[in-house]
Amino acid sequence: MPDPRDLELRQTAFEHVRGLSRRYDDIIPVDALRKGFEFRGERISLGSFYSGIFRPRQMQGPAALCLVTAPPKASGRGPYEDGFDEETNGFIYHYRSAKTDTAQARLRAEADNRTLRAAHELGVPVLYFHGVAPGQYTPVFPMFITADEPDRRVVALQAAMPMSDVTEAGLQSGEDLRRYATREARVRLHQHRFRFEVMRAYSGSCAICALREASLVQAAHIIEDHDPRGAATVVNGIALCAIHHLAYDRNVMGIDPTGVVHIATRLLHEIDGPMLRVGLQGFHGEPMRQPRSRIQRPDPERLEARYEQFKASA
User: Fold this and answer.
1) Do the strands 90-94 and 53-54 form a parallel or antiparallel pair, or are they unpaired?
2) What is the pTM (predicted TM-score) of this model?
3) Residue 99: its pLDDT value, please?
4) Confidence bin at 81 (pLDDT 50/70/90)
5) Are strands 136-149 and 37-39 parallel, antiparallel or unpaired?
6) For the chain, which terminus, N or C, has the lower number of CB atoms within 10 Å?
7) C-alpha distances in angstroms, 19 versus 9, 24, 27, 143, 188?
């Protein structure tokens, strides 16, 4: 049975992170997370984000509060190969390993791992922070550790319901509901990572008009993500401002396999305000801006498939 005070602390932590998620549009800067939160007149830390498993000293029980997966490095890999298990439909989270080969480092790592196992044994919800970019994390909560495999040094995580599963009664939602919530969490993380990679490739500006206002530039899919070819990868994405993203999605604007912009014939000779004349008609026949790195440029085969859709609609 979890300690009632610890449960209240967890609930307060969840509410605090929920507010940060709304404020930062689901991608929270690590500096905001490191400020912690107030609980009964005391500041409670969410961890340093240097160590992947964290239990605040103010907690009475032995279970961890936060788990962290670091953002991938330039190689595309993080320090731990946390991932997703298609068979069990859950996130795989690795035990912490000592950062140096000293007795003290090993003891610290195993102490953290005991708090991880305790969260499983007690059936308490945890906060999971998944790094989607350097210094930026997307939270998934409440998460429950549904399996512990000491031989493999991993645990399985499943997302749960934010209200019914965060009470003294513990985990109440059914397996099907948790599987659905976990799949949705996985999609969120993939899309955030996709957006970061696309925006970095295009230096944060629209590939058509070069607008750099961050709140108005989006990561557009070339092939929609429900299509088997619509992977959330940088070569299936283009940075577009809101107007050009909508124009591309509605097949008012197309981009051919060579990267040349085309505007639907029915709009080319239409007379309207300056947005149509300058924002759409003015880019007809112009090349889009492409990433400097060739390996980040749009896949010509995907562009061609999408351009065929445009021609059929134009």
Assistant:
1) unpaired
2) 0.81
3) 84
4) low
5) unpaired
6) N
7) 15, 9, 12, 17, 17
Strands (E), the chain: 28-29, 37-39, 42-44, 53-54, 66-69, 83-85, 90-94, 126-133, 136-149, 154-159, 217-221, 237-241, 253-255, 261-263
What is the tens place of the pLDDT at every residue in 48-74?
A: 998 799 999 999 999 999 999 998 775
Amino acid at 240: L
Residue pair 217/205 in contact by the 8 Å Cβ criterion: yes
Residue 205 tokens, joined: 């500006």
Residue of 137, 140, 156 whose CA lies nearest to 148: 156
How far does CA 280 lie from the centroid of its chain? 32
* Whole-angstrom distance, CA of residue 63 vs CA of residue 54: 9
Q: How confident is the model at residue 41 (pLDDT cuts 50, 70, 90)?
A: very high
Residue 251: helix, strand or coil by DSSP? coil
Strand partners for 287? 260
Looking at 88-125, which runs of residues are DSSP E strands? 90-94
Is residue 126 within 8 A of residue 59, CB to CB? The reply is no
CB 2 within 8 A of CB 122: yes
Angle at 186 between CA 309 and CA 91, to 5 degrees: 145
pLDDT-derived band at 84 (thresholds 50, 70, 90) equals confident
Cross-strand bridge partners of residue 156: 92, 147
Angstrom distance (rounded) from CA 93 to CA 100: 20
Short-list 174, 165, 175, 113, CA closest to 2: 165
CB 243 within 8 A of CB 229: no
Peptide bond before residue 142 is cis, with ω within 30 degrees of 0: yes
